[in-house]
Design goal:
- With 281 residues, the protein is an alpha/beta fold.
- The protein folds into two domains: 182 residues, TIM Barrel (Alpha-Beta Barrel); 67 residues, DNA polymerase, domain 1 (Orthogonal Bundle).
- Helix content is 42%, strand content 16%.
- It is built from ten helices and eight strands.
- The longest helix is centred in the middle third of the chain and has 27 residues.
- The protein is globular.
- The two termini are 28 Å apart.
- The chain binds adenosine monophosphate, zinc ion and fe (iii) ion (2 copies).
- Adenosine monophosphate binds next to helix 5 and helix 6.
Length: 281
């Protein structure tokens, strides 16, 4: 079974989606509406380095839709980005709150640093405006890409990443080092369950094995970037390493990649996740 069956028990869940609190296009309330429209029974709200969208999502959902509170923590190892999902964290955890505030201020400094480089190569953007437009949420390269697009310096967001913002782009500034092991630890000390996000096809088993040895609890098996053979590989690896298998669409909004609910995960995945997190109901 490469893809989850489409209607097992009728209840479908999607454990990976972004809102305007990071680089998603929809507000938490609009994301919840989209979840109703596509008919999923539970929605994971997993913004990059932020949990601030969760209260609004819960308020919009009421008792009609189950919200799975989450986060997608950015980290890196040897120059490659590694994302670690966290579920059911204690939002009042002091160390978590402090670390997320630090990420936010590091991200703002990085916007200024990248804007300076963009100015130096003749494609200026206003860092202050980028930050203001990102709103209450976490600012990132996608917001700089939008600014480049508005200014007519690039033809698309993809073009912006290729020429300027990606690791080989002239304006690229890496984020301060934060390892996947630190991300796992941050999630665990806040009482959450850590899940390696979209490992993709290029991450060696050895890396995943070492993260499992560091306490990683789960693996995102179903993801738009994972072809059926990749899904099968990760199902086997999760079983071998005793990791929870999760999945989701990594929804960022209309016209941005996969639609919400495109990687419907069986409801039993969520039941297992909740048991691991000690969450009832
Ligand atoms: P940041 O967290 O600021 O480093 O930005 C990383 C985010 O940019 C990723 O999580 C993706 O959502 C987005 N991103 C990365 N590469 C691209 C690309 N080529 N095109 C569009 N978005 C991208
Ligand atoms: Zn994103
Ligand atoms: Fe990611
Ligand atoms: Fe994501």
């Amino acid at each position: 079974m490469a893809l989850p069956p489409r209607n097992e028990g009728g209840r479908r869940v999607d454990l990976h989606a972004h809102t305007t609190y990071s680089d998603g296009l929809l507000s938490p309330a609009d994301l919840v509406q989209r979840a109703f429209d596509v008919g999923i029974a539970a929605l994971g709200v997993t913004d990059h380095d932020s949990i601030d969208g969760i209260p609004e999502a819960r308020a919009a959902a009421g008792s009609r839709l189950e919200i799975v509170p989450g986060i997608e923590v950015s980290s890196s190892r040897g120059g490659s980005e590694i994302h670690v999902l966290g579920y059911y964290l204690d939002s009042e955890n002091a160390a978590l709150k402090q670390r997320l505030a630090e990420f936010q201020s590091e991200r703002r400094s990085r916007v200024y640093a990248m804007a300076e480089r963009l100015g130096a190569v003749g494609v200026p953007v206003d860092a202050e405006e980028v930050i203001v437009r990102a709103g209450a949420g976490v600012v990132g390269r996608p917001h700089i890409a939008e600014a480049l697009l508005r200014a007519g310096h690039v033809t698309s967001v993809d073009d912006a990443f290729r020429r300027y913002l990606g690791p080989n782009g002239v304006a690229y500034v890496p984020r301060p080092r934060f390892t996947p092991e630190s991300a796992i630890e941050l999630i665990h000390q806040a009482g959450g369950i850590s899940v390696l996000a979209h490992p993709g096809s290029s991450m060696p088993d050895l890396v995943i094995e070492s993260l499992a040895a560091s306490g990683l609890r789960g693996l995102e098996v179903w993801h738009p970037q994972h072809t059926p053979p990749v899904v099968r590989r990760f199902q086997a690896l999760a079983a071998r390493l005793g990791l929870l298998a999760t999945g989701g669409s990594d929804y960022h909004g209309p016209g941005r990649g996969a639609d919400l609910g495109d990687r419907p995960v069986p409801a039993r995945v969520l039941e297992t996740l909740k048991r691991a997190a000690g969450v009832s109901g």
